[in-house]
Amino acid sequence: MPAGGRPTVRSRRLGATLRRYREAARLDQDHAAEVIAASKSKISRIESGQVTVKPGDVRLMLELYGVTDLAVAKHLEQLARDSNKRGWWMDDAQLPGEFADFVSLESDASYIRTWQNLFIPGLLQTPDYLRTLTRHASVTTYTPQAEDAFVKVKEERRRAVNRNGAHFAAVIWEPVLTAPMPSARVHREQLEHIAKVAQQSNVTIQVLPLAEWKAAHLASHFVVFSFGPELAPEAVAFDSATSTVIQEDPDDVVKHVRIFEALRSAALTPDRSIEFIQDAANSIPESKEDQC
Questions:
Q1: Which of 20, 63, 211, 251 is the least buried, fewest Cβ under 10 Å from its Cβ?
Q2: More reliable by pLDDT, 36 or 143
Q3: Residues 3 and 86 sit within 8 Å (Cβ to Cβ)
Q4: Residue 16 CA: distances (Å) to CA of 27, 45, 110, 171, 208
Q5: CA-wise closest residue to 263 among 198, 225, 194, 216
Q6: Of 83, 82, 84, 102, which Cα lies nearest the Cα of 92?
Q7: Max CA-CA distance within the chain?
Q8: Best CA proximity match to 265, nearest among 208, 190, 217
Q9: What are phi and psi of 238, to 5 degrees?
Q10: pTM of the predicted protein model
């Protein structure tokens, strides 16, 4: 049984990939069961993510399915090793199960694409911006200790993505960046942080101008994840004030990738976006807070 006593996104991803390769090879579950000396019901549970599978069995199944790409095999074998591991997020009681799945996707991803029309993308938020959200944009009152815990989780998420070397691409609607915030200092520092991070080789930030109303309303905010050596998207996630939803249906994921590409086409170029963000930061007037 996967860690946590329920299917994890890792075990589901592995099972779904093995199923796709089996179906592409036009083989049934009995063939897979025979090659790893297991029952048909176990293959069904592996493909649904209900049980973990040994790396050696993954190798045997891929050979049966005619998968010869060594990079793909290595990636899936590693996923089998990791499927039963507890990530740091699984020990955090403040993270709901669905959001823990989101963090797992984020931690494993090789390519993250996000569209944001409401908030600064989570991986770009400064600690003070996050605190501002919890204090001014939430119906729940949080203690200082809870705020510190949120900041700690956000920083650990950022470190996990950096360790993995993932490429991060974001399209952000202009009002998210330019609408006044409760603190001019926090606003300015947040924009300066984005402009700095955007110059990293694995980060691409694009600003969608306010005038691109049609593009901005193609979809609400979402995050698309790709894994391993392939850029093919495997999951799309949406969050709200009360829950996180993860979709793994291929058609739904591909639809959101197409929307993301349409948003990128309508947005400013990465270089022009950095200039825009820097200009926006410089145009924020000083406040009494800045003079203290």
A1: 251
A2: 36
A3: yes
A4: 15, 11, 18, 29, 35
A5: 216
A6: 102
A7: 74
A8: 208
A9: -130, 145
A10: 0.78
